[in-house]
Write a structure and sequence with these properties.
Elements: H1 2-26, H2 35-54, H3 61-92, H4 96-103, H5 107-118, H6 124-147, H7 154-158, H8 161-174, H9 181-192, H10 194-205, H11 211-214, H12 219-243, H13 251-262, H14 268-276, H15 281-310
């Protein structure tokens, strides 16, 4: 109960930050296009710094086993999401934007700052598992789904800043190399900026969107129901069962982190890819906005459900 309350408070605080981004665009201090600069800073500087800093911990067998568990669970989650979405599509006839919005979450923007604030910086280490799995799938399966590309873009995967940061962090972690204090302070300082900066971006993006029109659309409610409730409930129940099996001494929090990532709103990257491949980016942004607003309630509820089942 305590963690779910802390999560709700943190999401609300992040929502208020998003509201600031929304307001500054509405009153004309900034334009929606200006968010691209902040977005690039988050993607290319803040997020990689958080990831590298997360690996600046002591190398232990427990940490290695915990990371492998997190990676394994993240792979299984994505398999279920892809297969489940394909099965549901036979009934609801999802288009490519809807499928991608259900499968891929905004884990990069939301999960790292949430885990850091609610559980502590030492647990951010395990968030890299879900982000790594999703990054690889996004630039392979996701690109093929949205852009109908046949060839896998290996170059984009390898050169993705977050993948480079993870590989760098893993090397430093494995070799037990610690960054000099001055560099570490710089890296952690950029990392501390990720939460307000990322939420400002989301707020600025929707600053010139007619919210009345957004919430007047009917189809996105179904997508949000599946993205924020159906699959996260399945994950919560499954993870609670695994936690009771005693697979790791920190299984409660490792699995909770994967659950938080699973219960996150639709990925902002879906909108960006829709723009690149000239798909319906406006519809993708509608789903993204609605899921971000609804997750203020749904994410804490999913964590509460998980806590109740393991308690």
């Amino acid at each position: 109960m305590e963690i779910s309350i802390l999560l709700a408070e943190q999401i609300l605080a992040m929502f208020l930050t998003m509201a600031v981004g929304f307001v500054v665009v509405r009153i004309g201090l900034f334009k929606t296009e200006d968010s691209r600069i902040i977005s690039n800073m988050v993607v290319y500087i803040c997020n990689p710094c958080v990831v590298v800093h997360a690996f600046q911990i002591e190398l232990t067998d427990d940490k290695i086993r915990g990371l492998l568990i997190a990676i394994g669970m993240s792979v299984i989650v994505h398999i279920v999401l892809i297969a489940g979405t394909a099965a549901l599509s036979k009934v609801f006839h999802f288009n490519s934007i809807e499928k991608a919005s259900i499968i891929y979450t905004n884990a990069g923007y939301l999960v790292i700052p949430l885990v850091s604030a609610v559980l502590g910086e030492e647990w951010v280490f395990y968030t890299t598992a879900f982000i790594l799995v999703q990054t690889v799938l996004m630039w392979t399966h996701g690109v093929k789904l949205i852009g109908q590309e046949k060839d896998m873009n290996i170059r984009k995967i390898i050169t993705n800043p977050n993948v480079i940061a993870m590989l760098t962090g893993i090397v430093l972690f494995a070799l037990e190399i610690r960054l000099p204090s001055v560099i570490d302070s710089c890296v952690s300082g950029f990392g501390d900026m990720i939460s307000p900066a990322s939420m400002m971006v989301i707020g600025m993006v929707i600053g010139d969107v007619d919210l009345k029109w957004v919430f007047g659309q009917k189809r996105p409610y179904l997508i949000c129901l599946i993205r924020l409730i159906v699959f996260p409930v399945i994950a919560a129940v499954s993870f609670a069962g695994l936690e009771r099996m005693g697979i790791h001494k920190d299984a409660e929090y490792i699995l909770m982190i994967v659950l938080i990532a699973t219960a996150a709103p639709a990925a902002a990257m879906v909108t960006q890819l829709s723009q690149i491949y000239k798909k319906d980016s406006k519809y993708a942004s509608v789903i993204n906005v609605m899921s971000v607003v609804f997750c203020i309630v749904t994410m804490p509820v999913m964590v509460l459900l998980y806590e109740m089942m393991i308690g």
